[in-house]
Design brief:
Blueprint lengths: L5 E2 L1 H8 L3 H9 L5 E3 L5 E4 H9 L6
Antiparallel strand pairs: 1-3, 2-3
Helix pairs in contact: 1-2
């Protein structure tokens, strides 16, 4: 099976422990690459999301 290349909104909610509206706010801010499919579903680039997450400053 091919390596997963995209995350769903639900997967980002689970990874980050945040609400659905918060995920959509991140998408609106273009924090990482994403596409919108027919039917309004979003797919977020796994690579760009993982890179973004890895570069977040640590909590103080």
């Amino acid at each position: 099976m091919a390596e997963k290349r995209c995350y769903t909104v639900r997967e980002l909610q689970e990874i980050l422990g945040i609400s659905r509206p918060t995920v959509y706010n991140l998408l609106k801010k273009n924090e990482f690459r994403w596409i919108r499919l027919d039917g309004g579903k979003y797919r977020i680039s796994k690579k760009s999301f993982d890179d973004w997450l890895d570069n977040q400053p640590p909590e103080q």
